[in-house]
Amino acid sequence: MTILSFHPDTARLAAFVGLLALLALGERLWPRRPLTVARAVRWRINLTVVALDSLLVRLVLPLAPFALAAVLQERGWGLFNVLPLSGLAEIIASILLLDLTIYTQHRLFHRRPLLWRIHRMHHTDLDLDVTSGTRFHPLEIVLSLAIKLTVILLLGPSPLAVVLFEIVLNATSMFSHANLRLPPAVDRWLRLVLVTPDMHRVHHSVIVRETNSNYGFNLPWWDRLFGSYRAQPRDGHLGMTIGLREWRNQADLGLRALLQIPFLRKVPGQ
Questions:
Q1: Among 43, 110, 207, 209, which residue's Cβ finds the most Cβ atoms within 10 Å?
Q2: A GO molecular-function term, please (predicted)?
């Protein structure tokens, strides 16, 4: 039985729930940093955001990436349906280019003020754990999906490549945000091929030059190739402050307040 024997959404949900449980257990056993906000408070908010994101995507953009890839393959549209590329080579090329798209998009969301207003909700989390990898404003989720669909339309990747990429992206987003302590030697070698929690945590520092680094979710190579890689935070992983300087009070970070962030001219306390 192959992955496509399942409905793609079923495969994604199974991977999401399974990895969420596994990483949550790992955070309990081997935490990297002490939490500053009660886990239950943040989990309730972050997982509710996931539910809202999923609902909005269904309403606004009902065409799933897998479904679009299937249509393109059937009609022979897109770059990979024209080039003599198939099998494992096509899957690898598709995953690499889709991952580069996510890296580019993430960097763009930091560089353009209007997009940053949307994306900064993700950076308001005062702690990082496995659920932080799901904390994205619904507007960002819709924009991200629209960008992904556009790239899929141009590339014409196989449905299998798209499903694998979606599963891997969800998995690595949760892993890279996890409050998980890895042995230094393991982290040092693993970050050569995968974004590790210690590598991505730097990106969530309140120090702006650290926030504007380590944009990768999945593969670490783009940050190294395009000069946005930063090995360690200035104050160390235990001494660094996570979040944004403008939002330091969890009382200002309830669900309603988070959803209003892109529309705020002023931030709390200003």
A1: 110
A2: oxidoreductase activity
